[in-house]
Design brief:
Distance between the termini: 52 Å
Mean pLDDT: 97
Low-confidence stretches: none
CATH class: Alpha Beta
Helix content: 40-55%
Oligomer: single chain
C-alpha cells in the first residue's frame, strides 16, 4: 500500500487543545459543544467537535513559531469563552476531570464518534480524557519513521511535564496520569511500533486496513505517529494542559527536538532507537510518578531522575530554541519543575484542605490566568 507523505517546509507547527466545558455552578462536565458550535458555526476552521458534548477542541493553522501558535490558540479560546459564558459554562483543561462520571456524558453528534463507540463500546464510552497534540513538520517521508523512533525516548519527559490526571470519578488514583492508562485500552493506541522505515509503515497500515482493523491511518492513535496528510510527526502523549504557558512549553520542546533530529539526519547520523521494553517501562514510571520518576537511560539498566534529564535536555536544546524563536517557552520547563506539574498542583489543593470541587475551581482559574499557579 502506497501512502503519500506531504512534506513540510521546515519544522512548522500545529497544536490541538481539548477543552473541558464545566458548569460554573457545579464544576461538573456539562454538555454544550453543539450549542457553542451553532453560535460560532459548525464548520468553524479552528473550533471542532470532540468525542464528548462537554468538550471542544481548538486547533491552530500551520504556524512557523511557538508564539504564533500560542496566539492562534488564544484567539480561538476567546471565541469559545464568549459563546460558553452565556450558557453558564467555564473552560478548563486537565487530563481527566476530578469528579464527573463518564457514564453521565453525552457523545457528540459527529458520525465518526458514533461509529467509534459502536465499534469499541465500553472502551470508547469511558474516554472522558483530554489531551494536547503537537504536530511538527518533517521535510520528507524517509525521515518520519526514524524521528518517531528517536522521539519515543522522550515519552517520559513529555508525560511527566504534562501529567494532569491524578483523579478519576472522585478518587485519587495514585497516578500522575491516569489518562495515559485509560487511553491505552484502545487497540490502536499507546506506544508506537518501532518500524524500520516508511515502506514498513506503509505495509503495516495496509495490513490493518485490509484486515478491517482500521479504516484509515488516522484511526491509529499512537502516542507519537507520522501524519502523512499534514506532513508531520504528531506527539499525542501529553495530558491536557491547564495553561497556555504549558502549551507553549511542550510545543517548544517538540519543535526543538524534531529540528535537532532532522538536522542530525541531514548530517548523515543514524538516529537512536531505544528498545521497546525500555520505552514501555519509562512511560509507566512517568504515568505513576510524574516528575518524581527515575527512568532507565540505557540497555544496562542505568537510571536517572527525570527532573535531571529535563534540565539537561533544556540546556542542550536552548541554542535550537533561540534560533527557532521559542527560548522563552522552552524555559517554562524550569517554571514547571519549580511550581510542580498540574497533577502536583491539583493534589496540593486537596492537601491544603480543599475539596475536589476546589480543584476544579483552581483549574478554571489557571486556565483563565494562562500560567500555572505559583508562577513568578
Amino acid at each position: 500500500m502506497q501512502i503519500d507523505f506531504s512534506p513540510s517546509d521546515g519544522t512548522s507547527l500545529g497544536v490541538e487543545w481539548e477543552l473541558e466545558l464545566v458548569s460554573a455552578e457545579t464544576g461538573e462536565l456539562t454538555s454544550g459543544a453543539s450549542t457553542i458550535l451553532q453560535t460560532l458555526g459548525t464548520d468553524h476552521p479552528t473550533v471542532k467537535y470532540e468525542l464528548l458534548e462537554s468538550c471542544l477542541e481548538v486547533v491552530t493553522g500551520v504556524c512557523r513559531t511557538v508564539p504564533e501558535a500560542m496566539a492562534d490558540l488564544a484567539g480561538s479560546v476567546a471565541q469559545v469563552r464568549a459563546a460558553a459564558e452565556p450558557l453558564g459554562l467555564q473552560l478548563m483543561c486537565s487530563g481527566s476531570h476530578p469528579t464527573t462520571d463518564w457514564a453521565t456524558q453525552q457523545i457528540s453528534p459527529n458520525p465518526r464518534y458514533a461509529a467509534l463507540v459502536e465499534h469499541m463500546q465500553w472502551l470508547a464510552r469511558r474516554l472522558q480524557i483530554f489531551g494536547v497534540h503537537v504536530h511538527v513538520g518533517v521535510r520528507e517521508a524517509t525521515k518520519a519513521i526514524p524521528i518517531v523512533n528517536a522521539l519515543s525516548a522522550y515519552v517520559p519527559h513529555f508525560l511527566a511535564l504534562s501529567a494532569s490526571s491524578p483523579f478519576w470519578i472522585g478518587t485519587d488514583t495514585g497516578l500522575a496520569s491516569v489518562r495515559s492508562k485509560v487511553f491505552e485500552g484502545l487497540p490502536t493506541a499507546g506506544l508506537p511500533y518501532q518500524l524500520a522505515g516508511w515502506e514498513q509503515f506503509e505495509s503495516f497500515m495496509g495490513t490493518l486496513i485490509e484486515s478491517g482493523t482500521i479504516e484509515s491511518v488516522k484511526d491509529v492513535w499512537w502516542d507519537i505517529r507520522p501524519h502523512p496528510v499534514y506532513g508531520t510527526v504528531e506527539l499525542r502523549i501529553c495530558d491536557g494542559l491547564p495553561t497556555l504557558a504549558e502549551i507553549g512549553m511542550v510545543a517548544a520542546l517538540a519543535q526543538c527536538l524534531v529540528e535537532q533530529l532532522d538536522t542530525q539526519l541531514d548530517r548523515g547520523y543514524t538516529l537512536p532507537t531505544p528498545s521497546g521494553w525500555t520505552v514501555r517501562e519509562n512511560k509507566w514510571r512517568a504515568a505513576r510518578y510524574g516528575l518524581d520518576a527515575v527512568v532507565i537511560t540505557d540497555e544496562k539498566g542505568s537510571t536517572a531522575p527525570i527532573r535531571q534529564l529535563l534540565e539537561e535536555l533544556v540546556a542542550e536544546l536552548m541554542p535550537v530554541a533561540v534560533r527557532l524563536g521559542c527560548a522563552e517557552q522552552l524555559a517554562t520547563v524550569a517554571t514547571v519543575l519549580s511550581t510542580g506539574a498540574s497533577y502536583q498542583r491539583q493534589r496540593a489543593v486537596v492537601a491544603a484542605g480543599g475539596s475536589l470541587r476546589d480543584v476544579v475551581s483552581s483549574l478554571v482559574a489557571e486556565f483563565d490566568a494562562g500560567v500555572p499557579a505559583g508562577s513568578p
